[in-house]
Amino acid sequence: MPEVASVLFGREDIRRRIEELGRTITGDYEGRAPVLVSVLKGGSVFLADLMRAIRLPLAIDYMALSRYGGAAESMGRVRIVKDLEEDIGGRDVILVEDIVDTGLTLSYLLSVLRSREPASLEVCTLLDKTARRIVPVRIRYRGFECPDVFVVGYGLDFQERYRNVPDLLAVHDLAALAADPDLLLPYLPELAPEPRRPGA
Asked: Where are the domains of the chain?
């Protein structure tokens, strides 16, 4: 029986790649203080690790989107349910995404952010699923090229579960997972044993 999921990118590969991205961004923005903007909820884990890999004074901010009528991402119809708190006018902005596939939602977001007249606007995505691209978008920083598979873990969810899986998993049998959402429980991080107290 084929496995439901397998590790696509392991935690150590992710850590190393984010360190590389952090070094590159630090060099590219030397002498500046960029604003990292992430879209809740999927990008939050990537943002947390990426900002710690950037050796610059920076700010972070969040947006949250909702799809109209539960429309699929490929429809690209979204509304902003949480907007930025920072004024990005005249600032260097990096939009931090967990995954880019069709490009429709990203294209919409970029148009919204450009309308606020930042000094510069670039995209940094952990996963770039170019096989599903519909709208061409310029992505300056990318972690990994992602095959056309359903991906879970490291902030990406299945029915709001498994965002805390430390690896990125490729789901091979989505129907089986939908029928039994507990199938990915073995991939959750193991609890480290509590340290022994002196004299215990």
From this structure: 11-149
Beta bridge partners, 125, equal 97, 142
Of 148, 146, 150, 145, whose CA–CA distance to 172 is shortest?
150
Task: Please write the tens of the pLDDT for every residue from 18-28.
Answer: 999 999 999 99
101 is catalytic: yes
Res 190: pLDDT? 78
Can you read off the two tokens belonging to residue 100? 């880019």
Q: Which fold has domain 11-149?
A: Rossmann fold (3.40.50)
**Section 39-61 average pLDDT:** 96
Structure tokens at 73: 């991402």
| Summary count for the chain: helices (H), strands (E) | 4, 9
Angle between helices 44-52 and 11-28 (to 10 degrees): 60
The catalytic position among 13, 61, 98, 101 is: 101
Tell me the pLDDT tens digit for each residue of 74-103.
455 678 899 999 899 999 999 999 999 999
